[in-house]
Design a protein that fits this description.
The structure is a single chain. The chain has about 140 residues and is of the alpha+beta class. The chain is built from three helices and seven strands; from the N terminus they run E-H-H-E-E-E-E-E-E-H. About 25% of the residues have low confidence.
Length: about 140
């Protein structure tokens, strides 16, 4: 078995996990615990097989989908030598374009197409706004 990489989370990824946990915990604490366990188990698997995530076009990121219930979560990450750096984590159905934490380039129209619609990239059945990639590349919260 190959050596496992160290998993590190950016401040943005930590804030994402906290936000996602709180949203679900308010409705169902047991499901919130299962969600965090599923995401952390996926990150543990990525530590030994980091190139299994989908390549994000035009970026240095990869995306790994974490199936959970009827939906899924997406982990955006980058492999940096022996470190697997998790940039962001979000729910596949999350609206990251309406004032949430995914507005990279605020006020600049980053990722917006005609009519104010957000351009999306698709990984399997999960669509990710292009602006999320730009925000994640900055590795900020």
């Amino acid at each position: 078995m190959p050596d496992a990489r160290t998993v590190a989370l950016t401040p943005g990824a930590l804030a994402d996990l906290d936000r996602l946990d709180q949203l679900l915990r308010d409705k169902n604490p047991t499901a919130a615990d299962r969600m965090l366990t599923a995401i952390m188990a996926t990150l543990d698997r990525l530590a030994t097989a980091p190139f299994t995530g989908h390549i994000v076009p035009a970026s240095a990121l990869r995306a790994k989908v974490v199936r959970f219930g009827k939906g899924s979560y997406v982990c955006l990450y980058q492999v940096r030598g022996q470190v697997l750096l998790v940039a962001r984590v979000f729910h596949g159905r999350e609206d990251r374009g309406s004032g949430g934490g995914w507005r990279g380039g605020e006020g600049e129209g980053v990722g917006e197409a005609a009519g104010g619609r957000i351009r999306m990239c698709q990984f399997g059945k999960v669509e990710i706004p292009q602006e999320a990639f730009i925000s994640a590349l900055n590795m900020e919260g």
